[in-house]
Design a protein that fits this description.
single chain, alpha/beta, TIM Barrel, two-stranded antiparallel ribbon, 12 helices, globular, binds zinc ion, Mg-dependent DNase, metal-binding, Metal_Hydrolase, TatD-like
Length: 337
């Protein structure tokens, strides 16, 4: 299929998005911040703003066995998708599991197998990978061990990966290569590629991952500094995906992305980045300052499109849409709900 379905001219909200990384299990979306209730539950209003902004679907991140269960529950309820896996900073959970690490992995596998098809299904294995900025949560050797076993699941179950790599590039690609993911996203060993999400590495690191057949997920954290923008510019359109990582990774006025966001047309800005209020002065129907949400994906896409002057905003958003659809097998989204 070579033709691109135009997202109906240029009327606001006509650009479409799949937010491939959103932490909808976070209590902030229920009004609770670090254990303190600050306002009423506005989950539905947040979803409504996302829909108005053209976010047609999302992948809810599962960062542990328990959180993956919650992510799937939300995905089923709202007709979205979920990932199932264990984040590197929580990989100590494997060893702490009552019946040991093999049993934890088996529980992840069972959860995936029970949710492979239909509405609210598992779209990827993850979040898994390495995070050497936060080894105080789980030591590097523990992270490496359980990253490897989750790669095994991706091969066994033929699912794409939802990957996290922070300050660990050399070890991250070494393990991927040793496990057979050195080329074409591991398709020769039964896997199906995937995305390295929230990318903040160098252009060289991005190039290596793209050459290995992986896609790169960009969010507000990937567009924070001038160096980040220089890397984001090098992500090829056929390897690009957009995300928010909400409620984290908001774009702020001090970020390098600001210079590009200032050219976002007012009608789109009203949809993607509507005026927010502080949690203390919460108004239902308005976003909350400091709490990112999926509607902001349009701001991420706009910034990245400005780094690709050869392409229109529509071409960039459609490329990211198509990449997410193809890698995670979400073809039903194009046929309408
Ligand atoms: Zn992550």
């Amino acid at each position: 299929m070579a033709s691109v379905t135009p997202a109906t001219q240029n009327s606001p909200g006509s650009y479409r998005f799949i937010d491939i990384a959103v932490n909808l299990t976070d209590p902030m979306f229920r009004g609770s911040y670090h254990g303190r209730k600050k306002h009423e539950d506005d989950f539905e209003a947040m979803l409504e703003r996302s829909r108005a902004a053209g976010v047609k679907s999302m992948m809810i991140t599962g960062g542990s066995l328990e959180e993956s269960r919650e992510a799937l529950e939300l995905a089923r309820k709202y007709d979205l998708y979920a990932t199932v896996g264990c984040h590197p900073t929580r990989s100590g959970q494997f060893d702490e599991f009552p019946d040991g690490p093999a049993a934890y992995l088996l529980e992840l596998e069972k959860l995936i197998l029970e949710n492979m098809t239909g509405r609210g299904r598992v779209a990827a294995i993850g979040e898994c990978g390495l995070d050497y900025d936060r080894t105080h949560f789980a030591p590097a050797d523990v992270q490496r061990k359980h990253f490897r076993t989750q790669l095994g699941l991706a091969k066994k179950l033929h699912l794409p990966l939802f990957l996290h790599s922070r300050a660990a590039h050399a070890d991250f690609v070494q393990i991927l290569r040793e496990e057979g993911f050195g080329q074409d996203g591991g398709r020769s060993v039964g896997a199906k590629g995937g995305v390295v999400h929230s990318f903040t590495g160098t252009p060289e690191e991005a190039a290596e991952l793209m050459d290995m057949g992986f896609h790169i997920g960009l969010n507000g954290c990937s567009l924070k500094t001038a160096d980040n923008l220089a890397t984001a510019k090098t992500i090829r359109l056929d390897k690009l995906m957009f995300e928010t990582d909400a409620p984290w990774c908001s774009m702020t006025s001090t970020h390098a992305s600001k210079q590009h966001l200032s050219s976002l047309p007012a009608n789109l800005s009203a949809l993607y980045l509507p005026p927010a209020t502080k949690p203390e002065s919460f108004v239902n129907g308005r976003p909350v300052k400091g709490r990112n949400e999926p509607s902001a994906i349009g701001g991420v896409a706009w910034t990245v499109s400005k780094l690709h002057p050869e392409a229109t905003f529509e071409r960039v958003t459609e490329a990211a849409w198509r990449n997410a659809m193809e890698v995670f097998g979400l073809e039903e989204l194009t046929h309408g709900a």
